[in-house]
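Try this one yourself first.
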Protein backbone atom coordinates (compact mmCIF):
# COMPACT_ATOMS: atom_id res chain seq x y z
CA UNK A 1 0.00 0.00 0.00
CA UNK A 2 2.92 2.37 0.70
CA UNK A 3 4.44 2.37 -2.79
CA UNK A 4 1.11 2.71 -4.65
CA UNK A 5 0.23 5.55 -2.27
CA UNK A 6 3.48 7.35 -3.08
CA UNK A 7 2.92 6.89 -6.82
CA UNK A 8 -0.69 8.11 -6.61
CA UNK A 9 0.38 11.16 -4.61
CA UNK A 10 3.10 11.95 -7.14
CA UNK A 11 0.59 11.69 -9.99
CA UNK A 12 -1.84 14.05 -8.24
CA UNK A 13 0.87 16.61 -7.51
CA UNK A 14 2.35 16.35 -11.00
CA UNK A 15 -1.06 16.99 -12.59
CA UNK A 16 -1.70 19.97 -10.30
CA UNK A 17 1.74 21.42 -10.92
CA UNK A 18 1.37 21.08 -14.69
CA UNK A 19 -2.03 22.79 -14.82
CA UNK A 20 -0.94 25.44 -12.33
CA UNK A 21 2.09 26.23 -14.47
CA UNK A 22 -0.01 26.38 -17.65
CA UNK A 23 -2.97 28.40 -16.38
CA UNK A 24 -2.63 29.77 -12.84
CA UNK A 25 0.97 30.73 -12.12
CA UNK A 26 1.22 34.42 -11.40
CA UNK A 27 -2.59 34.84 -11.08
CA UNK A 28 -2.50 36.03 -7.47
CA UNK A 29 -5.23 34.60 -5.24
CA UNK A 30 -6.37 32.24 -8.02
CA UNK A 31 -2.91 30.69 -7.93
CA UNK A 32 -3.35 29.89 -4.24
CA UNK A 33 -6.97 28.72 -4.47
CA UNK A 34 -5.96 26.24 -7.17
CA UNK A 35 -4.08 24.18 -4.58
CA UNK A 36 -6.89 24.14 -2.00
CA UNK A 37 -8.58 20.85 -3.09
CA UNK A 38 -5.22 19.08 -3.08
CA UNK A 39 -4.43 20.44 0.39
CA UNK A 40 -7.82 19.23 1.63
CA UNK A 41 -7.19 15.84 0.03
CA UNK A 42 -3.90 15.51 1.85
CA UNK A 43 -5.54 16.37 5.19
CA UNK A 44 -8.34 13.86 4.55
CA UNK A 45 -5.87 11.09 3.73
CA UNK A 46 -3.96 11.84 6.94
CA UNK A 47 -7.21 11.78 8.90
CA UNK A 48 -8.30 8.47 7.36
CA UNK A 49 -4.93 6.80 7.97
CA UNK A 50 -4.81 8.05 11.57
CA UNK A 51 -8.17 6.45 12.27
CA UNK A 52 -9.67 9.75 13.43
CA UNK A 53 -13.24 9.98 12.09
CA UNK A 54 -12.20 7.28 9.63
CA UNK A 55 -15.56 6.98 7.85
CA UNK A 56 -15.92 10.74 7.38
CA UNK A 57 -12.38 11.19 6.07
CA UNK A 58 -12.63 8.18 3.75
CA UNK A 59 -15.84 9.53 2.19
CA UNK A 60 -14.24 12.96 1.86
CA UNK A 61 -11.10 11.46 0.29
CA UNK A 62 -13.04 9.53 -2.34
CA UNK A 63 -15.26 12.52 -3.08
CA UNK A 64 -12.28 14.81 -3.66
CA UNK A 65 -10.58 12.23 -5.87
CA UNK A 66 -13.66 11.66 -8.03
CA UNK A 67 -14.87 15.25 -8.30
CA UNK A 68 -11.55 17.11 -8.46
CA UNK A 69 -8.52 14.90 -9.09
CA UNK A 70 -9.78 12.71 -11.93
CA UNK A 71 -11.48 15.53 -13.89
CA UNK A 72 -8.26 17.57 -13.66
CA UNK A 73 -6.32 14.61 -15.02
CA UNK A 74 -8.78 14.30 -17.90
CA UNK A 75 -8.37 17.99 -18.73
CA UNK A 76 -4.58 17.75 -18.51
CA UNK A 77 -4.51 14.77 -20.88
CA UNK A 78 -6.85 16.17 -23.52
CA UNK A 79 -6.64 19.96 -23.58
CA UNK A 80 -3.85 20.00 -26.19
CA UNK A 81 -5.50 17.29 -28.30
CA UNK A 82 -9.06 18.64 -28.50
CA UNK A 83 -8.71 22.21 -27.28
CA UNK A 84 -9.31 23.84 -23.92
CA UNK A 85 -13.07 24.33 -24.31
CA UNK A 86 -13.73 20.77 -25.41
CA UNK A 87 -11.45 19.39 -22.68
CA UNK A 88 -13.25 21.56 -20.11
CA UNK A 89 -16.61 20.18 -21.24
CA UNK A 90 -15.22 16.64 -21.08
CA UNK A 91 -13.91 17.21 -17.55
CA UNK A 92 -17.31 18.65 -16.59
CA UNK A 93 -19.01 15.53 -17.94
CA UNK A 94 -16.66 13.40 -15.82
CA UNK A 95 -17.67 15.41 -12.73
CA UNK A 96 -21.38 14.92 -13.47
CA UNK A 97 -20.78 11.20 -14.04
CA UNK A 98 -19.13 10.79 -10.66
CA UNK A 99 -21.63 13.01 -8.83
CA UNK A 100 -24.45 10.85 -10.22
CA UNK A 101 -22.64 7.67 -9.14
CA UNK A 102 -21.99 9.04 -5.64
CA UNK A 103 -25.55 10.23 -5.06
CA UNK A 104 -28.31 8.62 -7.12
CA UNK A 105 -26.30 5.61 -8.31
CA UNK A 106 -24.99 4.63 -4.88
CA UNK A 107 -28.53 4.52 -3.50
CA UNK A 108 -30.42 3.16 -6.52
CA UNK A 109 -31.53 -0.12 -4.97
CA UNK A 110 -32.44 -2.91 -7.37
CA UNK A 111 -33.94 -6.36 -6.89
CA UNK A 112 -32.64 -9.01 -9.26
CA UNK A 113 -34.51 -12.29 -9.61
CA UNK A 114 -32.74 -15.45 -10.78
CA UNK A 115 -33.93 -19.02 -11.28
CA UNK A 116 -31.44 -21.88 -10.85
CA UNK A 117 -32.30 -25.50 -11.67
CA UNK A 118 -30.71 -28.66 -10.30
CA UNK A 119 -31.48 -32.31 -10.90
CA UNK A 120 -30.25 -33.17 -7.39
CA UNK A 121 -32.48 -30.65 -5.61
CA UNK A 122 -34.75 -32.41 -3.08
CA UNK A 123 -38.41 -32.23 -4.15
CA UNK A 124 -39.51 -30.40 -1.01
CA UNK A 125 -37.20 -27.50 -1.97
CA UNK A 126 -38.62 -27.03 -5.47
CA UNK A 127 -39.50 -23.31 -5.56
CA UNK A 128 -37.30 -22.52 -2.53
CA UNK A 129 -36.65 -18.76 -2.31
CA UNK A 130 -33.30 -17.43 -1.07
CA UNK A 131 -32.47 -13.75 -0.68
CA UNK A 132 -28.76 -13.30 -1.27
CA UNK A 133 -27.11 -10.16 0.13
CA UNK A 134 -23.45 -9.24 0.09
CA UNK A 135 -20.96 -6.45 0.72
CA UNK A 136 -22.97 -3.98 2.78
CA UNK A 137 -19.83 -1.96 3.65
CA UNK A 138 -21.77 -0.05 6.28
CA UNK A 139 -18.84 2.23 7.01
CA UNK A 140 -19.53 4.05 3.75
CA UNK A 141 -22.87 5.41 5.00
CA UNK A 142 -23.43 8.20 7.50
CA UNK A 143 -24.75 6.94 10.81
CA UNK A 144 -28.07 8.67 10.08
CA UNK A 145 -28.49 7.08 6.64
CA UNK A 146 -31.83 5.39 6.01
CA UNK A 147 -30.50 3.33 3.11
CA UNK A 148 -29.65 0.14 5.08
CA UNK A 149 -33.19 0.28 6.46
CA UNK A 150 -34.56 0.54 2.92
CA UNK A 151 -32.61 -2.59 2.01
CA UNK A 152 -34.12 -4.46 4.96
CA UNK A 153 -37.64 -3.30 4.07
CA UNK A 154 -37.19 -4.51 0.49
CA UNK A 155 -35.90 -7.90 1.63
CA UNK A 156 -38.78 -8.43 4.04
CA UNK A 157 -41.29 -7.60 1.31
CA UNK A 158 -39.98 -10.57 -0.70
CA UNK A 159 -40.93 -13.01 2.09
CA UNK A 160 -37.99 -15.37 1.45
CA UNK A 161 -37.54 -18.86 2.86
CA UNK A 162 -33.90 -18.09 3.65
CA UNK A 163 -31.64 -15.02 3.83
CA UNK A 164 -27.88 -15.33 3.35
CA UNK A 165 -25.14 -12.71 3.58
CA UNK A 166 -21.78 -13.44 1.96
CA UNK A 167 -19.45 -11.08 3.79
CA UNK A 168 -18.03 -7.56 4.13
CA UNK A 169 -20.58 -6.09 6.49
CA UNK A 170 -18.13 -3.26 7.28
CA UNK A 171 -15.16 -1.49 5.76
CA UNK A 172 -12.60 -1.70 8.57
CA UNK A 173 -14.12 -1.59 12.05
CA UNK A 174 -17.02 -3.63 13.50
CA UNK A 175 -18.26 -0.43 15.18
CA UNK A 176 -19.30 0.84 11.73
CA UNK A 177 -22.33 -1.46 12.03
CA UNK A 178 -23.45 -0.28 15.46
CA UNK A 179 -25.74 2.46 14.16
CA UNK A 180 -27.56 -0.03 11.93
CA UNK A 181 -27.96 -2.92 14.36
CA UNK A 182 -31.67 -2.19 14.84
CA UNK A 183 -32.28 -2.50 11.10
CA UNK A 184 -30.11 -5.60 10.76
CA UNK A 185 -32.08 -7.21 13.57
CA UNK A 186 -35.28 -6.83 11.57
CA UNK A 187 -34.09 -9.26 8.90
CA UNK A 188 -35.86 -12.59 9.25
CA UNK A 189 -36.90 -15.51 7.08
CA UNK A 190 -38.69 -18.82 7.59
CA UNK A 191 -35.44 -20.80 7.80
CA UNK A 192 -33.30 -18.05 9.28
CA UNK A 193 -30.57 -15.55 8.38
CA UNK A 194 -27.04 -16.89 7.84
CA UNK A 195 -23.74 -15.12 7.18
CA UNK A 196 -20.04 -15.57 6.55
CA UNK A 197 -17.15 -13.15 6.83
CA UNK A 198 -15.43 -11.25 4.02
CA UNK A 199 -11.93 -9.84 3.83
CA UNK A 200 -12.94 -6.41 5.20
CA UNK A 201 -14.61 -7.92 8.25
CA UNK A 202 -11.19 -8.67 9.79
CA UNK A 203 -9.87 -5.12 9.46
CA UNK A 204 -6.39 -4.39 8.17
CA UNK A 205 -4.37 -4.33 11.38
CA UNK A 206 -2.92 -7.82 11.85
CA UNK A 207 -2.70 -7.29 15.60
CA UNK A 208 -6.47 -6.83 15.91
CA UNK A 209 -7.73 -9.42 13.40
CA UNK A 210 -9.11 -11.78 16.03
CA UNK A 211 -10.63 -8.95 18.05
CA UNK A 212 -12.37 -7.53 14.98
CA UNK A 213 -13.56 -10.97 13.88
CA UNK A 214 -15.00 -11.86 17.28
CA UNK A 215 -16.64 -8.45 17.68
CA UNK A 216 -18.22 -8.64 14.23
CA UNK A 217 -19.52 -12.18 14.73
CA UNK A 218 -20.99 -11.17 18.09
CA UNK A 219 -22.69 -8.21 16.50
CA UNK A 220 -24.24 -10.31 13.73
CA UNK A 221 -25.37 -12.94 16.21
CA UNK A 222 -26.94 -10.25 18.40
CA UNK A 223 -28.94 -9.26 15.32
CA UNK A 224 -30.30 -12.80 15.18
CA UNK A 225 -28.04 -13.98 12.37
CA UNK A 226 -26.23 -17.33 12.44
CA UNK A 227 -22.58 -17.00 11.44
CA UNK A 228 -21.21 -20.07 9.69
CA UNK A 229 -17.51 -20.06 10.52
CA UNK A 230 -16.23 -23.13 8.67
CA UNK A 231 -19.37 -24.98 9.67
CA UNK A 232 -22.73 -26.10 8.33
CA UNK A 233 -26.32 -26.56 9.33
CA UNK A 234 -29.11 -28.81 8.10
CA UNK A 235 -32.32 -27.27 6.81
CA UNK A 236 -35.27 -29.67 6.80
CA UNK A 237 -38.53 -29.49 4.90
CA UNK A 238 -40.61 -32.53 5.67
CA UNK A 239 -38.61 -35.67 4.89
CA UNK A 240 -36.12 -33.74 2.71
CA UNK A 241 -33.15 -31.65 3.75
CA UNK A 242 -30.29 -29.62 2.38
CA UNK A 243 -26.93 -28.59 3.81
CA UNK A 244 -26.09 -24.92 4.18
CA UNK A 245 -22.36 -24.48 4.77
CA UNK A 246 -20.16 -21.44 5.17
CA UNK A 247 -16.45 -20.70 5.30
CA UNK A 248 -14.47 -17.77 6.57
CA UNK A 249 -12.90 -15.56 3.91
CA UNK A 250 -10.84 -17.64 1.49
CA UNK A 251 -8.49 -15.75 -0.81
CA UNK A 252 -5.25 -16.45 -2.64
CA UNK A 253 -3.85 -12.93 -2.42
CA UNK A 254 -2.85 -10.62 0.44
CA UNK A 255 -6.26 -10.73 2.14
CA UNK A 256 -6.86 -12.70 5.33
CA UNK A 257 -7.65 -16.30 4.34
CA UNK A 258 -8.96 -18.58 7.06
CA UNK A 259 -11.54 -20.69 5.26
CA UNK A 260 -11.58 -24.44 5.85
CA UNK A 261 -13.90 -26.13 3.36
CA UNK A 262 -13.25 -29.65 4.64
CA UNK A 263 -14.13 -28.60 8.18
CA UNK A 264 -17.25 -26.79 6.99
CA UNK A 265 -18.55 -29.94 5.28
CA UNK A 266 -17.35 -32.43 7.88
CA UNK A 267 -20.22 -34.63 9.02
CA UNK A 268 -22.62 -33.45 6.31
CA UNK A 269 -24.91 -36.28 5.13
CA UNK A 270 -23.37 -38.11 2.19
CA UNK A 271 -25.08 -37.31 -1.11
CA UNK A 272 -26.97 -34.35 0.36
CA UNK A 273 -27.70 -31.22 -1.66
CA UNK A 274 -25.21 -28.57 -0.50
CA UNK A 275 -25.16 -24.80 -0.66
CA UNK A 276 -21.92 -23.01 0.26
CA UNK A 277 -21.44 -19.40 1.33
CA UNK A 278 -17.94 -18.14 0.52
CA UNK A 279 -17.04 -14.49 0.06
CA UNK A 280 -14.50 -14.63 -2.78
CA UNK A 281 -15.78 -16.24 -6.02
CA UNK A 282 -12.27 -17.37 -6.96
CA UNK A 283 -12.70 -20.01 -4.27
CA UNK A 284 -15.22 -21.79 -6.52
CA UNK A 285 -12.75 -22.98 -9.15
CA UNK A 286 -9.72 -23.15 -6.88
CA UNK A 287 -11.21 -25.54 -4.31
CA UNK A 288 -14.99 -25.92 -4.27
CA UNK A 289 -15.35 -27.57 -7.68
CA UNK A 290 -12.31 -29.89 -7.55
CA UNK A 291 -12.52 -30.86 -3.87
CA UNK A 292 -16.20 -31.00 -2.95
CA UNK A 293 -19.66 -31.97 -4.19
CA UNK A 294 -21.24 -28.58 -3.40
CA UNK A 295 -23.98 -27.95 -5.94
CA UNK A 296 -24.57 -24.21 -5.36
CA UNK A 297 -22.01 -21.64 -4.25
CA UNK A 298 -22.96 -18.08 -3.29
CA UNK A 299 -20.32 -15.33 -3.27
CA UNK A 300 -19.80 -11.57 -3.49
CA UNK A 301 -16.59 -9.55 -3.16
CA UNK A 302 -16.26 -8.21 -6.73
CA UNK A 303 -18.96 -5.47 -6.55
CA UNK A 304 -18.66 -5.67 -10.38
CA UNK A 305 -16.19 -2.90 -9.52
CA UNK A 306 -19.34 -0.77 -9.05
CA UNK A 307 -19.31 0.06 -12.75
CA UNK A 308 -21.18 -1.72 -15.52
CA UNK A 309 -22.01 -0.39 -18.97
CA UNK A 310 -23.96 -2.43 -21.52
CA UNK A 311 -23.41 -5.50 -19.36
CA UNK A 312 -19.62 -5.04 -19.33
CA UNK A 313 -17.58 -4.40 -16.21
CA UNK A 314 -13.86 -3.86 -15.57
CA UNK A 315 -14.25 -6.59 -12.93
CA UNK A 316 -14.04 -9.09 -15.80
CA UNK A 317 -10.33 -8.27 -16.05
CA UNK A 318 -9.76 -9.61 -12.53
CA UNK A 319 -12.45 -12.25 -12.05
CA UNK A 320 -13.74 -14.97 -14.35
CA UNK A 321 -16.90 -15.05 -12.27
CA UNK A 322 -17.66 -11.44 -11.32
CA UNK A 323 -21.45 -11.05 -11.37
CA UNK A 324 -24.50 -13.25 -11.86
CA UNK A 325 -24.92 -16.98 -12.47
CA UNK A 326 -22.24 -19.32 -13.81
CA UNK A 327 -22.66 -23.06 -14.39
CA UNK A 328 -19.88 -25.66 -14.55
CA UNK A 329 -19.72 -28.51 -17.07
CA UNK A 330 -21.19 -30.91 -14.51
CA UNK A 331 -24.16 -28.67 -13.73
CA UNK A 332 -22.95 -27.11 -10.50
CA UNK A 333 -23.45 -23.35 -10.16
CA UNK A 334 -22.13 -20.21 -8.53
CA UNK A 335 -24.02 -16.98 -8.12
CA UNK A 336 -21.92 -13.85 -7.54
CA UNK A 337 -23.76 -10.91 -6.03
CA UNK A 338 -22.66 -7.46 -7.17
CA UNK A 339 -23.23 -6.30 -3.61
CA UNK A 340 -24.98 -3.43 -1.90
CA UNK A 341 -22.35 -0.86 -0.94
CA UNK A 342 -18.61 -0.40 -1.29
CA UNK A 343 -15.70 1.39 0.34
CA UNK A 344 -15.88 3.73 -2.66
CA UNK A 345 -19.28 5.50 -2.42
CA UNK A 346 -20.00 5.30 -6.14
CA UNK A 347 -22.04 3.03 -8.42
CA UNK A 348 -23.05 3.32 -12.07
CA UNK A 349 -24.66 0.44 -13.95
CA UNK A 350 -23.91 -2.00 -11.15
CA UNK A 351 -26.38 -0.64 -8.63
CA UNK A 352 -26.98 -1.85 -5.03
CA UNK A 353 -28.34 -5.35 -5.46
CA UNK A 354 -30.73 -7.60 -3.60
CA UNK A 355 -30.90 -10.99 -5.30
CA UNK A 356 -33.86 -13.31 -5.03
CA UNK A 357 -32.78 -16.82 -6.04
CA UNK A 358 -35.50 -19.38 -6.70
CA UNK A 359 -34.37 -23.01 -6.78
CA UNK A 360 -36.19 -25.46 -9.03
CA UNK A 361 -35.83 -29.17 -9.58
CA UNK A 362 -35.14 -30.18 -13.18
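Now uncover the answer:
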Amino acid sequence: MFIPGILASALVLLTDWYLWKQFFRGKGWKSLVWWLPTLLLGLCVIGAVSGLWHTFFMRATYSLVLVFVLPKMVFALFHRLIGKKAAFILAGAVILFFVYGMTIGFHRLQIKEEVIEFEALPSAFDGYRIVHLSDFHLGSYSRSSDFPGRVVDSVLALKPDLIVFTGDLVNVYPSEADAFLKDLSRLHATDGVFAVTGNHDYGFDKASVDENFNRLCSLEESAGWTVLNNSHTLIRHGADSLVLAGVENTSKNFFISRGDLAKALEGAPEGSFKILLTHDPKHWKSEVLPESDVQLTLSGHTHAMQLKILGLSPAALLFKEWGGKYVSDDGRAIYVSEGIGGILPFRVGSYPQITLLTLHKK
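Discussion: The chain has a mean pLDDT of 94. The two ends are 48 Å apart (CA to CA).
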